[in-house]
Amino acid sequence: MVSIISNDSYQTLVAPTVSEVEALESPIKTISEISPGLTCFAADSGSCHGLIDFGSEDSSPLPVVDSDGSSHEFIDSGCDSSPRSTGAEAVKLDEQPTNVKCVESNHQLIDSEFSELDQHGLLWEEGILGFEPLWSVEPKIEDIKKTVQSLGPSSTVEVEFLAQGGFNKVYNVTVDGKAFIMRVSLPVDPHFKVLSEVATMDWVREVTQLPIPTVMNFQSSRENCIGFEWMFMTKMPGRPFNDVWLSLSFDAKSSLVRQLASSSAALFRRQFRGIGNIYGGPSSTLDSASSSKLPHIRNPIKATAIARMDDLGLEGSYDLPSNDEFQNSWLTLDRIVSMQFFWHLRLRQRVSRGPFHSGKDWIAARLAIIGNEYQSILDRLQVGNLTEDEQDGKDDAEQTLRIVELLIDLLPRFFPPDHDHEEPEPSAVFHDDINNNNLLVNDDGELTGVLDWEFVSAVPLWKACDYPFFLQGPSVPSKPDPDRYPCKRDGTLSKLYHDHLWGYEATCLRSTFIDEMKKLDARWVEVFDKSQHLRDLDTAVQNCDNSLWWRFINAWIQDIISEKDKIQSLQDRHHQNQFRPL
């Protein structure tokens, strides 16, 4: 396993399989072109030595060796060459071209942009299910109160801890009797996480009818009284859908689903080009205290292009709204903010973080970052006697890398060369974590709030055209019979019954959602119907390092390799395992 980089986007990827390398007839030869400008080179030893980008299209990328025949690759640190021996034959050091940009193949490379990351207060602790973020410093209630008081004149400010999520602590704030929320964030992706979330919420509020919080003020730097990034926003009324769904009528649930379908159609019509997160927006002017500290945004795409549907090979095109109806000239599409890109030490890897030209590039970058991480683990565990836990870690890393290799090999099947986009691929903003807890409703089941807009990106249309997350799950065609389920000690029905009941209702509500989408925008349904294989690929990439998914992913991959006539979707394989009817 090795790393290679792209000529055009400078992204790290994982090399082809050993079998491809062994098929070489010459000592140094191109063995794989995963996408245009993205090539891997290997020697006759079967080891791949990476791609060197010489900064021009007509320059030939080559590995280099010194006079004793030892091969080297170079770390890009302002073109200050720092050789690392790899022991293969190639051109000599004195033949090295200028302005070389290279990447080291031991997967330990640290991007200089992130080498000085300020992630004060964040710890990663390894547990049974992997690394989890922890707070090494607790925000102080008094500091939050002082911060709120500094935002404007007020007679009374009360602050009370409300809840803690994966990356945030949430506080109820009352200012002169009015309710607000203060959300303090761990610096998992400093600056970018908060900046993008604020812009996304501003934009979604403008183009949909969804009730979402209004950001009153925010800080995307820790250089403030609280010592962390924060967002101060309006508090949405209502209760989590999870708390009340049993008491709601099915008509109320259907109405809720139709409202979510309406927002999906609205977001589908307001398309971007490229894959990444959106930045900018009216609220960004509020962050004046930290604006001078923001990192440079390198390759933004002005987010004014709205894709035509004929770019997708579908009939028809959108009538673009006039400037009076809608404009997003204040937006840019830039680097992605995603858990798969920052988890644990991943933020320090030198890989492309977008904006991505295509879904193929986005998938490839995700595989690269996973491959780099687990190759680093494997390298560390190759030497010496291993404990039982270390051997388990080694086995897990090897299995993950095998799946990563297989998925890379399959990319041309999912993204044929004739489907490459000359312009950035059309995309749409998609909230992929609308669950039973961040949907707020009133006692009648009417939607009162949609929360948690962090990590919401503009993704390929084949990803964006999907059910809301809370509706996804196994197909349960018949309503469960309560008489067949055990009761709890208090006489109420068990959680298993309620899980199966929700499975049945969600199955029915998926039909409601699709029926509504057919009325609102049949083109959304057309993309949805033709894209299950790509959503399965996305699912495989998302879960390729999750041992609970390995047998499903491996079976799905083997069906693709063997070219079965009818291949069960990966999502269905997993969903069927979750549901066992009584």
UniProtKB/TrEMBL annotation:
Domain Aminoglycoside phosphotransferase residue range list: 387-457
InterPro entries xref list: AGP_Transferase, Aminoglycoside_PTrfase, Kinase-like_dom_sf
Source organism, top-level taxon: Eukaryota
SUPFAM superfamilies: Protein kinase-like (PK-like)
Protein's name in the database: Aminoglycoside phosphotransferase domain-containing protein
Originating organism: Penicillium salamii
Highest classification ranks of the organism: Eukaryota, Fungi, Dikarya, Ascomycota, Pezizomycotina
